[in-house]
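Input/output pair, single chain:
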Amino acid sequence: MTGINKPFTPWRLNSFQAGHRFRSVSALAIDLRRTAGYIVADRQGRLVGKVECPMYGTAPDVPDALSVKSGLFSRRRRLVPADTIEQIDGTSGVIGLRVDRDNIRSFL
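Output:
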């Protein structure tokens, strides 16, 4: 496999019990650098806002959070850590979170 969603582990069939076969489970790398303009929704489907830019903290070249602006003229932004992201749909431009909107910290 090639591209952005390349799995970390190779595809192979494993069998831990007789007659049961399944594919290996792997984590996919989430590229937060290309999510500017995506819409962010919490786990209940409520709108959090639109991604303004990625935020860098632990490494200078890998973003570990997103700055989400809640309204057009709003000055408040929310800091969405990468570990709260459940899924990113690149075709529709929507990011789904695994936490409620009230649990996301806001900043100026």
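Strands lie at 13-17, 20-23, 39-41, 47-56, 63-69, 77-81, 85-89, 94-97, 105-107. Residues 30-107 form a domain with the SH3 type barrels. fold (CATH 2.30.30.240).
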